[in-house]
Amino acid sequence: MLKYIKGVDYQTFDHSLFVAAVQAQFPGAAINSEGDGPLGPGFVTVDLPDSDGAAVRAILAGQALTQAKTAKNIEIMAAADAIRVQMMADYSDLEQSSFPYQLADAVAWTADNTRPTPWLSAMATARGTTVAILAPKVIANNTAWTAVAASIIGQQQKYQDALTAATTVAEVEAINPTYTV
Fold it and tell me: Facing residues of 45 across strands?
């Protein structure tokens, strides 16, 4: 991690990204990135003329914005995933993996109740019920989940659109991914 830049305020950033950005902006810059600079291991010094301090600060600001956006995107997705996990808590991973097959059987059976329904037939037998009872439940559950999932995804994308549009760290930090179901 970058700890020090000569003539620039203290910051902590991803070392390799910063060094690459400085090298691109200032091809002749003297960069001590070996960790044995005047401040000790883990510190980086960049020797630029004082007039280049603003340019280095601009690199840092760009890196800060990138890091803030990355962290906020993780927060946005984690909040959406937390809703999904909460809503799916009553279903095992095995059952969740069978949802597409259950739905395919339920839709096929609803269209033609003489069609084979391998998943629903096996489930109905094991459960002591019938496909006629399970098929409408599967379709109703899918319809309800689709509406909720679409709402969550729409909200997630709204937050991600705001994130894409953000041009400052303050704008990024103002995004509060709170989902309503």
Answer: 32
Q: What is the pLDDT of residue 14?
A: 59
**Three-state DSSP class for 29?**
coil
Strands 45-47 and 30-32, how do they pair? antiparallel
Higher confidence at residue 26 or residue 43? 26
pTM summary value = 0.64
CA–CA gap between residue 156 and residue 146 (Å, rounded): 15
- Residue 24: pLDDT band by 50, 70, 90 thresholds? confident
Task: List C-alpha distances in Å: 133 to 6, 86, 100, 104, 141.
Answer: 73, 26, 18, 15, 13
3-state secondary structure at position 13: strand
Number of domains in the chain: 2
**Residue 3 domain flag:** no
- Residues 50 and 123 placed together within one structural domain of the fold: no
Distances, alpha carbon 73 to alpha carbons 82, 90, 155, 166, in Å: 14, 28, 13, 12
Q: Minimal CA–CA distance to 177: which of 48, 29, 74, 26?
A: 74
Mean of pLDDT over the chain: 81
Residue 135 domain-assigned?
Answer: yes
Whether the per-residue pLDDT at 141 is higher than 80: the answer is yes
